Amino acid sequence: MLLWLTDYLSQYVGGFGVFQYLTLRTMVSVVTALAVSLLIGPRMIKWLAQAQIGQTIREDGPSSHLSKAGTPTMGGALILVVILCTTLLWGDLSNKYIWLVIAVALAFGGIGWLDDYLKISKKNSAGLPARWKYLLQSIFGLAVAIALYQQADLPQETALYVPFFKSIAIPLGVGFILLSYLMIVGMSNAVNLTDGLDGLAILPTTMVGAALGLIAYVAGNTEFSSYLQIPYIPGAGELSVFCGALIGAGLGFLWFNTYPAQIFMGDIGALSLGAVLGLLAIIVRHEIVLLIMGGVFVLETASVIIQVASFRLTGKRVFRMAPLHHHFELKGWPEPRVIVRFWIITLVLVVIGLSTLKLR
Fold first, then answer.
1. How confident is the model at residue 60 (pLDDT cuts 50, 70, 90)?
2. Dihedral of CA 301/302/307/310: which sign?
3. CA-CA distances (angstroms) from residue 156 to 176, 280, 285, 286, 317?
4. Partner of 6 for a Cys bridge, out of 16, 27, 146, 159, CB 3.0 to 4.6 A?
5. pLDDT number for residue 65
6. Closest CA to 237 of 18, 22, 9, 10
7. Mean pLDDT for the stretch of residues 169-180
8. Residues in contact with 117: Cβ distance below 8 Å, sequence separation at least 6, in sequence order
């Protein structure tokens, strides 16, 4: 919206023309989202507390978590509202990718809201049955995957690129739909599984989102993409504005979500942010790089799969508890130590992922 306004005003005051620069709008979106989050965050926490919208703690979880019962939850709504409003303010609303990521954020946020609502209303941590949650995720995930496939105009928009190699691009054909579906639904659930400790999921999400924003900017620029030998995706650069909003909103939420948390993200935030990360990686054709940068999410998911498979096949558990962060808690690691160490691991993995842009 403001992009159109500043474009109109630049006819009369030349200084407004600077807002046409994508880099400036990205930086402004970070500041806008952060400021709005810090401004309305305390009010939202107060309202959630008064409405008794509190976290329900799983009975089989670590005993140290019992004291967190009743902490305001569904804070992911704050993240989503800030991201969407900031993107609508500073993004190019004629860009198809902007509307696609907004649609995915709202769709998966809606699933998360339903899950959180059932947990709160029934005072039970189970929430929405897994089969219904997965069905809804699958419907939206497939719809987006098919839309991307149908809208693809260039061969590179549906090819799988292997990092660290210059010319390995595997044409996927209709297999692109399956890959996209798995990335969107898989990352949605992966971030949700990781969201079990104060601030554990939001900072890695923010770091990975920032890296994807940089990749989007490069992929949408003909000169930079050619120099770095990565696929050029017309229009992808505008996603850096969305990622800027994600960075600001994520850091703003972390201000209140850091240990000990004043508010929890809930499924409304975790499911939507995970799906958005998956979609961003698909658009810029860096799915494998996302799996590297989001290694913490991958490990958390793998730990659950391994634990369930081992128990069903052998009757024994590999980990003391899954997801993985609970395993380290039960080994005696204080919660802040688990959180910060997972943050450090994510930072290292993000640097490795970004290095693939040059090391080819």
1. low
2. positive
3. 11, 15, 8, 11, 43
4. 16
5. 57
6. 22
7. 94
8. none
